Amino acid sequence: MTLRLSSVGKEFAPGRPVLADLDLTIGAGEFVCVVGASGSGKSTLLSLIAGLTRPTTGRVLLDGHEVTGPGPERGLVFQTSSLYPWRSVARNVAFGLESLGVPRRERDERVARLLDEVGLGSMASVLPGKLSGGQQQRVAIARALACSPRVLLLDEPFGALDVQTKEDMQIFVRQVWRDEPTTVIMVTHDVEEAVFLGGRVLVLSCDPGRIARDMVVDLPSERALELKRSPGFLALRAEVEDLVRAEHRAHQARV
Ligand SMILES: Nc1ncnc2c1ncn2[C@@H]1O[C@H](COP(=O)(O)OP(=O)(O)OP(=O)(O)O)[C@@H](O)[C@H]1O
């Protein structure tokens, strides 16, 4: 899977570009985090890749095919749980497979395997309202993984969680990425999270959003929480924070 954005720009109102001149290639199996100040267009970028909105200029290509709408090869998880409250945990995870007409037995097996993978095998028949925020996000990730997406798109998936749960989820999502054959693209405003999870971090500038920096995270691929205290991690985190701050200040100075 190769995702390519070629000269992509996005305007919601004429003459007011939110994103401009985005040229970007993401290869199979990458874990890419996108950071930037509030309003820099991070979620818009993810929506373009998801096919929820179309670029004003340029093209988004997945393996050479233009993205013109959502598709099962791209799984999406938002910040707040978008689970169907009336469906059990298992039936939430099964939703995409049902839509694709996957036979019952195969569907049930896949759902059971995914629920085990996210540590919620015993919660299959429970309604989402009975779960904690972290558990709900695990179900949302399992649901997004159900159709074996080639790209998993995460939009601030842990933004609403407390610090402890968030760290558990960070470890969890790295495991998912290691175990599933999927590329991950994750938007976050949390620089520490981006450096901890990503193999690559994109920093967006503001107004319009462009790629200000495309950085390789040169840290061991085994990411344990202690890494967050290592000098290499702290230096990289500071560098990204400085960049985000500089882009934000430059934007403030222009308005
Ligand atoms: N559907 C829309 N219609 C009009 N304007 C929009 C729409 N979606 C986003 N925008 C505008 O585009 C800009 C970028 O928004 P976006 O949500 O992509 O930024 P972001 O970097 O994800 O912000 P945050 O970190 O605050 O979530 C904002 O000015 C926002 O108001």
TrEMBL record:
Signal sequence, renumbered to the chain: none
Tell me one GO molecular function of this protein: ATP binding
Q: Which stretches make up the ABC transporter domain?
A: 3-231
Q: What keywords appear on the UniProt entry?
A: ATP-binding, Nucleotide-binding, Transport
Protein name from the UniProt record: ABC transporter ATP-binding protein
